[in-house]
Amino acid sequence: MPTTTPLRVAIVGAGPAGIYAADILSKTDLEVSVDLFERLPAPYGLVRYGVAPDHPRIKGIITALYKVLQRGDIRLIGNVDFGSDLSLEEVRRYYDAVIFSTGAIRDADLNIPGIDLDGSYGAADFVSWFDGHPDVPRTWPLEAQHVAVLGVGNVALDVARILAKHVEDLMPTEIPENVVEGLAKSPVTDVHVFGRRGPAQVKFTPLELRELGHVPDVDIVVYPEDFDFDEGSEEAIRSSNQTKQVVKTLTDWTLRDPSELTASRRIHLHFLHAPHEVLGEDGKVVGLRTERTELTGDGNVRGTGTYEDFDVQAVYRAVGYFGSPLPDVPFDDVAGVIPNAGGRVLGADGEHIPGLYTTGWIKRGPVGLIGHTKSDAAETIRHLVEDLTSAIEAGSLTGAEVRDPQAILDRLESDGVPYTTWEGWELLDSYERSLGEEQGRERIKVVPRAEMTEISRGVTARA
Predict the structure, then answer these.
(1) In whole angstroms, what is the distance from residue 203 CA to residue 62 CA?
(2) Backbone angles phi, psi at 251, to 5 degrees
(3) Dihedral over Cα of 279, 285, 287, 291: its sign
(4) Tens-place pLDDT, residues 211-259
(5) What whole-number distance in Å separates Cα of residue 448 and Cα of residue 245?
(6) pTM score of the predicted model
(7) Which residues contact 94 (CB under 8 A, 6 or more apart)?
(8) Could you tell me where the DSSP H helices lie in 150-240?
(9) Could you give the CA distance from residue 278 to residue 287 in angstroms, rounded to a whole number?
């Protein structure tokens, strides 16, 4: 397409959503240069900091993302915090369009009494800890023998499995050393996972659930009285092979002879239990009260007024992730997303704000797998290309004032922002791998943020 110089597009957020968007955009007919901004010194987002270390199959997605960035036609600019290091107004001076792909990293709220007690945690924070996120503390209070996990999705399974798994069984993975030290001291024996609906309504994927049954010296305990299926459940089983597989796995576990359950640790799966209150004493968690629910015929449930107390000393809520607002960018506080129509960011009047786009979880909410993220990015890029093409053809493109690619780097340097690059990330990656090789492991990736930045910028001799 005829333009005097390449169009310039900034993508804020270098997780899978941002990298997929950059990749798809770079393969369109537009002559375009793409800068990928990331708040952390390292790319990959939740694939790096949100997937359990004992799931190398999922972490293998990084290999595909690495190949995209390694090509060199997409520029990574890390350690730059949008809204702090760069304002929206400034970004728009340098780019014709901006795509926000900042994901959803906060825990969704759960409004029940006692949820703020000492010993009540968000699953997202715990995942960040055991994945070595550089912005979280290096220690975690693992003092509970009995733990409750609220939620029946894969994140709940990750939390339950990491808590219950013996630390020596995690050693072949890239689990950070400080996490090994913390888990080794944990006194946990029982982890209770609670879901308010029935077995046919859980959000576990079949593979994740089956893997749970193969954790060494950890028994899976299910309760026949928690199994109920209404017409809505039967329809879900008939219409979804995934639901059918999950229900079969859960049902098979109910048929196990109790005498076979001899492991030193247990994961209990409870269905038809709605969290009602986190019980406390002296400001600390001492239990969980649930209300027994019943199916209503359509797969939903209602409370029965019957309550049960469980003796637990910690509660983890895994009821979903939630997006965070970005300075000067519209945000839906209820849905936790940037308001948009097919990726076009909408203003308060419901109209598209020219030049602003979004993709990934901050666009659609924290649902779907990596495959959904790719198709989601394709939709956003299609609309962005349509808009820029129309503007160019109409001679109405009002985009970047400054088009020199070096200008944005000069701007960051002038303000002392220690940005990192793809070459810097390769230095850090090599350093992390060397740490792992020294100890006969895949990788140790807990490096404090300041040290990550120094290594990425080639400042430290250890790089």
Answers:
(1) 24
(2) -65, -40
(3) positive
(4) 999 999 999 999 999 999 999 999 999 999 999 999 999 999 999 988 8
(5) 42
(6) 0.91
(7) 8, 10, 400, 401, 402, 403, 407, 408, 411
(8) 154-164, 177-184, 206-212, 231-239
(9) 6
